[in-house]
């Protein structure tokens, strides 16, 4: 299902956090949103998973205006993981993952065999099967992040919204997660700080700076040394990935040695 942000604006206390953001994620595409700290990435995502009402603009989910969709309908269609991955209660891992089915159930309806199998499969895909009976509050940051991703997958959404899903993950789990996203066939909008991961995993990249989209397109068109210097204030060399030919950034870190 296609996701389209059309002229999205968020104004809080007279300050524009997101300015006239238009961005399309075609069905089954992975689109990365990158940009410096405070550039409005999470604010834009919060509008898509309905934690925040935009000041103006429209979010189209397929051919439907998100603001007019019943909450239960959008909860079935869009799954999200947030940046801090906060979990307040000491549920077990399998209980948290099962919560992903909530938009599909009525009241206290129990999970059926298919739904339980879905939860087991998602835990296996995220390499957390061995943690099923652990309390989530006892988990490491990366383990907890994988639990929340499993919960998002069992929701069986059409659209996944992920805010820095790799930030606590070790390199193996980063690579596995991005491979899983690419193989999922879902429409994915993901905030990533690691530009090299974004280049490797995304069909297209949008760059936000001070709330505005300053570039968007395939990674090789967007991730240029000039853009990285302009937007992030960092000197980088862009070299082709030896296997894929995609752009990879090498940073110079000043040193007296
Ligand atoms: N509720 C709010 N009230 C006032 N300012 C806010 C609010 N929420 C976010 N901001 C500000 O809006 C700006 C954009 O925040 P946002 O979290 O969207 O940035 P971000 O690009 O996701 O940053 P980061 O990379 O650090 O996660 C920041 O300056 C932030 O302090």
TrEMBL record:
Pfam families: ABC_tran. InterPro entries: AAA+_ATPase (IPR003593), ABC_transporter-like_ATP-bd (IPR003439), ABC_transporter-like_CS (IPR017871), P-loop_NTPase (IPR027417). GO terms for molecular function: ATP binding; ATP hydrolysis activity. This is ABC transporter ATP-binding protein. Residues 3-235 form the ABC transporter domain. Keywords: ATP-binding, Nucleotide-binding, Transport. It comes from Streptomyces parvulus.
